Amino acid sequence: MSLAADARLALKFASRELRGGLSGFRILLACLAIGVAAIAGVGSIRAAIEAGLEAEGAALLGGDAEVSFTYRFANEEERAWMTETALSVSEIADFRSMATVPREDGSTDRALTQIKAVDTTYPLIGTVGLSPDIPLPEALSCAADTPCIVAEQLLTDRLGLTPGDTLRLGSKTFVLGAILTNEPDSATGGFGFGPRIIVRRADLEGSGLLQPGTLFDSHYRMTLPEGADIDAIKAEAEGRFESSGLRWRDARNGAPGVARFVDRLGAFLILVGLSGLAVGGVGVSAAVRAYLARKTSVIATLRTLGATRQVIFLTYFLQIGALALLGIVAGLLLGGFVPLALAPIIADQLPVPARFGLFPGTLAEAAIYGALTALVFTLWPLARAEEVRAATLFRDALSAGRALPRPTYLVVIAVFLAVLVGTAALFSGTWELTLWTAGGIAFALVLLRLAGLLLRAAARRAQSAARGRAPLRWALASIGGPRSEALPVVLSLGLGLSVLAAVGQIDGNLRGAITRELPDRAPSFFFVDIQKDQMPAFLDRVETDPAVSRVDSAPMLRGIITRINGRPAAEVAGDHWVLRGDRGVTYSGPLPDTTRITAGEWWGPDYDGPPQISFAAEEAAEMGLNLGDEMTINILGRDITGTVTSFREVDFSTAGMGFITAMNPSALEGAPHSFIATVYADAQAEAAILRDIGNEAPNVTAIRVRDAIDRVAVLLQGIASATSWGAAATLLTGFLVLIGAALSGERDRVYEAAVLKTLGASRRRILGSLALRSALLGAGAGLVALAAGIAGAWAVSYFVLETDFAVIWANALAIVLGGLLANLLAGLAFAWRPLSVRPAQVLRAQD
Amino acid sequence: MTDPILSLNDARLTLDGNAGPVDILRGITLDVEKGETLGLIGPSGSGKSSLLMLMGGLERATGGQITALGHDLTAMSEDALARFRRDHMGVVFQSFHLIPTMTALENVATPLELAGKPDAFERAAEELAAVGLAGRADHYPAQMSGGEQQRVALARASAPRPDILLADEPTGNLDGPNGQAIMDMLFGLRDRHGATLVLVTHAPDLAQRCDRVIRLRDGALDRAEAAA
């Protein structure tokens, strides 16, 4: 018979079988629906943020386009070009400083702040939100004879200020005009160390801030004529001011940092979602297997009546396919509409704009994942269905068929698996991460399967030791014997718990390293913007303090590496982080005590020749640099080209001073610059140092390292919690699979309980045995997941983060307990029937 | 005269069917003496197995009274019934009803474990040897033939030395020679341990091996007759 005829016949059989309803397929549907929904949901939120960033790009950027400079303002030529090109231009300077409030008792409160010095046209696009609700110009001219500022509530709370109060920036007094509640272009600023203050740049005159050498960025926001060719303008700017260190951004990607972060986190979460789908796949596979086991006699009968293997395969493929489609559609509806329904709540939680909607591309991505997963996980059991022979009717179904499907099916499954991984890589845009994730999932599944087998073997062996403790022995018998639930339980619970364990261990170790170990090794303070003439007094104050154990200081400039060996740097070294923005550059005559040269030679204290560069060794290797390479660094709009003559060891892990690039003094000394210093001091001496330096040099900014570390820790916590939510979806799917396993095992348990009752077992003992087996299996799955999670976390810590690793025991215990409780809950939820049913009902039915 | 070991007084069983209540047993009054072997025969659906289930406390009578060894089974809770079976009864089913997750030895040891016997496994091994299955102790039910499974079930039922052995068509799923062997073993065990045996069977020739045979029809006693 032809394939078409077989398919028609199979369709008839399939539709007849599906008349029985969906009662046996709830778990299959739920597994697929939740897996697809999680991916569609994450994708929808990511797409909403991307749509929001795109739609509000101009407001986020503060203009249609922006050019920025490090460390300097635009020169006349650059200003003239901007005025020619744009309808309007707004100039902003962004830098860190200290806000201080002198108290009546002579003490001074200080807080680090990120100052945005603006002109009268700011903001070109968008509105600054203030409390009280007044326009920005009004707030910034709130007092007749004193300049005004607006500040974020975090800062005013920290300094105990309310509108009308005064504070000092540098050596000048300002009045707080209003509280800043919404800064339209806040997402573009990157990682700020302190809360924001907005002030007129003109009002900073006489404050001692923004001196030559101060570390600041200048931004010029432009509104462009309607229909302007942004690409052409960008090309012109970059071409004309190629060697000036100019950086370009435009409204098409107003917050590239945020967009990149959202894109990467989204891609990562979708990969976590895929692990959820893999667990769902295990459940789907189990559900299909259980269904086909129930259908063995039907299949055998069909075979007896003359149905070919192809008809049998197609009959059940069509049924499962229809059900999978239903599950995927349910998942898409959930994943598409739930974020839409919760849009106001989600938008409130997001620091960036989001435009919610239904995103067909995102939904298609989730549907493809769902369909491929369903194919990969159902083909195996389906292929085995066609192996059922008519003779099975006369023999125990358990012994029927061979272990592996035919080679054709194995090849088809492998192809679908490859397509799934390829699709994930294509959508996530990162082959490396996808392959690691796929490898991780595959490894975890193999490991969990092995662990499940091991658990069964251990339970079998332990039975003899449990003789005399009947409920325990029955529990072990059921785990170790045929029809054991060990494999499905360990697989379904294990993968979700493994991801959770790995996330918990990585997060705990990373945060431990940052919040506990780092402060022990890191300096107490960074002092930046120290003018050259302030250095002697500064050093005198800190070096003579017995509470200070170490002071490092160095001249500091900032520069952008623009060319390597005459070619654009990005062409040579790709998208290396060192090239992504401006980096600190220092100079020194003699080799500093703490510097270790790994290759080449330092220029020596009296060198006065052409510029030479000493580059960080590890980064040089990553970028493919060699001794003798020429490198052009743009500092303050001037290109300085030098030769790389040595590589140095630079350790960023201690949060101490570390410069990627060092040059000989004569190359840089002429440029305006300031100094940076790190001070290692006892905690109790910190306040006095801060006070004295602040009084002596109000323009100097002190960054307390612990505060910065806390901010990083909060950021990490956010990422870890987002990942944990992804893992929770995996766990939820795993729990569903557990319920599926418990459901499919219910018949066996009811039967077993009936026989045990016949033999004289009380319900309490039977319940005890049921609880024990669930708890043992759950704890076993938890332990296996913990081992897999710790192994994964160690690998990430050791190879990727390069941090020390220690097991976080509280988290480990929670994982094992979680596994135990989850399985106990699933097991006990299905204990009622075995306990309540009367033996005769069951045993007679069996006869 | 001693008190009967099993006594049914107007025992009734009505079950809810799709088309309404169905009377399975309609007032059975019957005494079984200690040490007696009683055969229950009758056509399919006559209520033989249900009567046996009532005697074993595996089914609850909806009317009347059933006493075993002087205890009123109808007044006992599910757990009390389970304990009573543990201490006094052994049951053999047509479908063997071994626990598939346990080996032959573990199946036989289970009632002894439940009774808290410290030597449960030693005694189980002896019982298995007694039914000729010493070499199959570590096999799971699925790895054994029907005849072997029924022998394990027999060993399990007799291992705790019950006062009453209830057997529900124990040869129903077996061929002639296997069925004959099982019957020989059942009566042999009963003879050795002196238990009271109630045997449900379709086969008149098997029933004739009992001291007394009772025929059921439509849930009621048809007539009682003592075997030779």
UniProtKB/TrEMBL annotation, chain A:
Transmembrane helix listed as a keyword: yes
Span-the-membrane segments of this chain are 265-292, 313-346, 366-383, 404-427, 433-455, 725-745, 766-796, 808-832
What is this entry's stated membrane topology?
Answer: Multi-pass membrane protein
Keyword terms of this UniProt record: Cell membrane, Membrane, Transmembrane, Transmembrane helix
Highest taxon in the source lineage: Bacteria
Q: Where is the ABC3 transporter permease C-terminal domain?
A: 271-384, 728-835
Database matches in Pfam families: FtsX
Gene Ontology, cellular component aspect: plasma membrane
Q: Does the keyword Thylakoid apply?
A: no
Q: Kindly list the places in or outside the cell where this protein is found, as annotated in its UniProt entry.
A: Cell membrane
Protein name (Swiss-Prot/TrEMBL): Drug:proton antiporter
The protein's organism comes out as Pseudooceanicola atlanticus
Source organism phylogeny: Bacteria, Pseudomonadati, Pseudomonadota, Alphaproteobacteria, Rhodobacterales
Automatic annotation (TrEMBL), chain B:
Could you list this entry's UniProt keywords, alphabetically sorted. Answer: ATP-binding, Nucleotide-binding, Transport
Residues folding into a coiled coil are: none
Q: Where is the ABC transporter domain?
A: 6-228
Q: Which domain of life is it from?
A: Bacteria
Spell out the molecular function terms from Gene Ontology.
ATP binding; ATP hydrolysis activity; transmembrane transporter activity
Choose one Gene Ontology CC annotation of this protein and give it: plasma membrane
Checking InterPro entries in the record gives:
AAA+_ATPase, ABC_transporter-like_ATP-bd, ABC_transporter-like_CS, ABC_transpr_LolD-like, MacB-like_ATP-bd, P-loop_NTPase
What's the protein name? ABC transporter
Q: Which organism is it from?
A: Pseudooceanicola atlanticus
